[in-house]
Amino acid sequence: MKSPVDITVPQEVIQKWQRIVNIMAEIMDVPAALIMKVELPYIKVFRSSKTRNNPYTVGAKEHLYGSGLYCEHVVKTKKKLSVPNALRDKHWDKNPDIKLGMISYLGFPLLWPDGEVFGTICALDSKENGHNKTYEELILQFKELIEAHLGLLHDRKHLDDLVGERTAELKKTNEQLLQAITERKQAQTQLIQLEKMNALDTLSAGIAHELNNPLMGMLNFVQYCIEKTSRDDRKYEVLKDTEDATQRCIDIVRNLLAFSRMGDKESYEKQSCGVLIDQVLKLISYRTEGVLIEHCISEDTPEILMKANGIRQVFLNLLTNALDAVENEEKKEIRIRERREGEYVRITIADTGCGIPPENTGKVLDPFFTTKGPKKGTGLGLSVSRTIVEGHGGMIRCKSEPGEGSEFTILLPIERGNRDE
Ligand SMILES: Nc1ncnc2c1ncn2[C@@H]1O[C@H](COP(=O)(O)OP(=O)(O)OP(=O)(O)O)[C@@H](O)[C@H]1O
Ligand SMILES: [Mg+2]
């Protein structure tokens, strides 16, 4: 709590104190009754009786210490001072109030509840005054009344401070609660997302399984018809389109199966990512003409325990995307880097392609997100890749500047063990 000296005396209390000094001066028949207030380094006239020939005005102040004032003595000693006639008292015959014509003084200290001095209450007279006991008793009563006011002000301030403290505590608790609610909401959103993915997983596995055989049958049948149809025949183009469309359906199903992990009964083996990437580059060599491909492997890159078919598919998806991205760009460059990073191998595939706008970077790993139009992309490449990488205990990240290119990073643990088997 603040020092009581900082407490402001409210207007209604000031008015009461004014009445007290007025009555005091009138009953005691003296020119001045005062309430003085210590405001270091000064002592100031806080209330002054409205009496004739009163030389003290409210607000007038003097340096408290070393002033030789009657009040200085009362503040220092915290005791009553009675000086019936200063002119005949060698202790007081030079005090500054004599210049104002005040030669008699009777004063008491006014104390806060903790004993700190508020100021004084005093009566000053221009003539000798023996200060009879009744008047002394009267001032004492006023002193007690004023100190009771000070006690109330002190308690109120204490209460205000307490309320302030409690309000601040409450505000903090409230903020913590809000934070907890926000975190819970985020956790719920993640849970819902996870549920959606699981549902999609089951659904795609079911659909893919059911579609796979009829689609293969359709493809065989269409290819049989194509063989039996002359190129000049009007039906030939239609059959060719049907073959493309069926092939596309088979691709989607294959991707869906990989996505749901149902089609993947492969076991873990030690394999080098570099070897897999080279295999993929060979596979897509028909598309890499005119594209600068750089493949750097740090010497310390170890083989890792993996399902090679799955990881090969990841590299195929990422490199196909990179090739798609540089297709219409003047600068066609793809840089692949591999190095060890602690217990992981880090593979980055960076391209100088069209890049990904910031509003899409959070979506590219979602299933069915594609910007390639209905004929070209299924939007499953990256989400399948993520499922495979995460199934290996790894992670996949994407960084991109539109117009500058994109960089996909994969971290795969070297020794993960067969955690999901
Ligand atoms: N290297 C890249 N540069 C720019 N955009 C990319 C890159 N890789 C992915 N994208 C964006 O992310 C989208 C999703 O990629 P994803 O591989 O999942 O699907 P897709 O390539 O559209 O279709 P699919 O791979 O199934 O044939 C792409 O359509 C493209 O907008
Ligand atoms: Mg793709």
Explained architecture:
By secondary structure, this protein is of the alpha+beta class. It has 2 domains: 4-161, GAF domain (Beta-Lactamase, 2-Layer Sandwich); 265-413, Heat Shock Protein 90 (2-Layer Sandwich), CATH 3.30.565. It is built from 9 helices and 13 strands. The strands form 3 sheets. Strands 3-2-1-6-5-4 form a 6-stranded antiparallel β-sheet, sandwiched between helices. A 5-stranded mixed β-sheet has the order 8-10-11-13-12, with helices on one face. A two-stranded antiparallel ribbon has the order 7-9. The chain is rod-shaped. It starts with 10 loop residues before the first helix and ends in an 8-residue tail after the last strand. The chain binds adenosine-5'-triphosphate and magnesium ion (MG).
H and E order:
HEEEHEEEHHEHEEHEEHHHEE
Shape: rod-shaped
CATH structural fold name of the largest domain? Beta-Lactamase
Share of residues in strands:
15-25%
Which small-molecule species are bound to the chains here? adenosine-5'-triphosphate, magnesium ion
Please identify which CATH superfamily of the largest domain we are dealing with.
GAF domain
Main beta-sheet annotation? 6 strands, antiparallel
Mean pLDDT: 89
**Kindly, what is the distance between the CA atoms of the first and last residues, rounded to a whole number of angstroms?**
65 Å
CATH architecture tag of the largest domain: 2-Layer Sandwich
Main-sheet strand order equals 3-2-1-6-5-4
The percent range for helix content is: 40-55%
CATH class of the largest domain: Alpha Beta
- How many beta-strand runs? 13
Number of helices: 9
The domain count comes to 2
What Rg do the Cα atoms give?
47 Å
List segments where confidence is low: pLDDT < 50 over at least 5 consecutive residues.
none
